[in-house]
Design a protein that fits this description.
The chain is an all-beta fold and 123 residues long. Helix content is 0%, strand content 48%. The strands form three sheets. A six-stranded mixed β-sheet has the order 2-12-9-4-5-6, with no helix packed on it. The chain is globular, with a radius of gyration of 13 Å.
Length: 123
Amino acid sequence: QVQIRESGGGLVQPGGSLRLSCTASGITLDNYSVGWFRQAPGKEREGVSCGRTTGGGTFIADSVKGRFTISKDNTKNIVYLQMNNLQPEDTAVYYCATGCTVVGDRARGLGSWGRGTQVTVSS
């Protein structure tokens, strides 16, 4: 059984920061291509950042480059997404998933998914 959970979401003001955590039971995240994805109201789901894709590279969306950073702590089996200088357009449900694969200029999670954590950026 694979069970992925996201945490760390919340309400922040523009310019603020949050750190999301992805944890898993049943798998060791370091053995997988783990990525962060998000879906805003009325928009399609998009890839945010993947530390290692199935093709052996990395991925980060242009819209978050320079503001978001993906990292991991193998001893704790956690993958993080550090989000700085958050803006209202970053408001979305953020998901963690395995199987991060680049298709064209987009990233998709083809493996297991968590339920998501809400991030709201508003003044």
